Structure prediction request, 308 residues.
Amino acid sequence: MNYFYGPVPSRRLGFSLGVDLIPKKVCSFDCLYCQLVKTTKKIITRFTYVDEVGFKKELKEIIKKNPKIDYITLSGSGEPTLHKNLDRIILAIKKITKTRFPVCVITNSSLLYRKNVRSELRQADLIIPSLDAATRKTFNRINRPHKSLSFKKIIDGLVSLRKEFKGEIWLEVMLVGGINDSLEEAEKFKKIIQKIKPNKIQLNLPVRPSETKISLPCPKRIKTIEKIITGSRKVALSFCRKQRKTSLDTKGEILKYLTRRPAGLSDLVNSLGMNSQQAVKFLKDLLKQRVIKQYIYKRKKYFVIKND
Prediction:
């Protein structure tokens, strides 16, 4: 198994080397907006998914190539905190890289109510937890959690994390039109966020394709919510990777990327540092071979691995 992907450019993290610890799509949620299709195994029980010997070997090989990395990010195809003994993974990364790169964990916040999970996360440098609802009703509708998870557990976990974690916490809120974008919800978000006390608040929009048809809030509503929640206008800056010479394995890199998430041409060009003409050529080859398929979502063409 390949545990790493990238480095890919991220508007938040610069060049991010992704770490995929969990099989696709094992998660504690089944979010309406998820770009990784429907959760196939909804659980809250933690297991050890990673072969540490293979993991360390793969990371050492990547570091030898001396890629441009700003963060090493645990996210991937499922909820990373479902991996048991997550601190061992983080410490292994820091030992192999000699702490040259900060470690970030992106989590849906579902298991933060557990003290042992929060304890393991202390080894990270940055945590980006998500909070997509300000009420129990909205939480159940948008995140479709495991039956044992409650909205109160999510909030309690986030508040406890802030008290115990000494690093940066950037709270991410995904706004979905008609579900969590009311002004009433925004005011409740504001009160909850005041309890959590994150270092940053990041508003996000579900612009990538998902299995469930969802809408974006109107631009005017987004600005109003930003003002209520953050107190100031925050703009996500685009981040483009410098193009590199095309390697013989570029087609393999495209497939590796699409295995984890759907992507448009611009996503692949920016993420893999490819020449756009070469990317088009490889995509045409893969379409002809029926390895991938394409479809239109919100007026943008996306490519995805063909499973049927």
Observations:
- The first helix runs from residue 52 to 64.
- Confidence is low (pLDDT under 50) at residues 233-248.
